[in-house]
Amino acid sequence: MSTPEVDLVDRLEAAVLAVEGVVGLHAGVLGEVATYLPGRRVGGLRLRGDDCEVHVVLSFGSPVVETADRVRDAVRVLVTGRVDVTVEDVAPPT
User: Fold this and answer.
1) Which pLDDT tens digit goes with each residue over 5-32?
2) In the chain, where does DSSP find H-type helix?
3) CA-to-CA distance for 74 and 17, rounded, in angstroms?
4) What pTM was computed for the model?
């Protein structure tokens, strides 16, 4: 069964992962950054009221500030509050 929160989290996840230079979401050192939904957990996204935290892993060579700004812009169209973006890691070059 889908709820507005589940739909929002799914759309947020898709929007973040669609940003060029983002290779994944990151749940933090101890897995503390997450949104808990019925039957699953989405690491790397935390919703608090209207605000949203996004923690990402970038591909090697991606410009950090510019990519974080693109993530913020992609999320900002889906939430009404503040959007905080944290770059947790950079994936090694392939």
Assistant:
1) 889 999 999 999 999 999 999 999 999 9
2) 4-17, 64-76
3) 10
4) 0.92
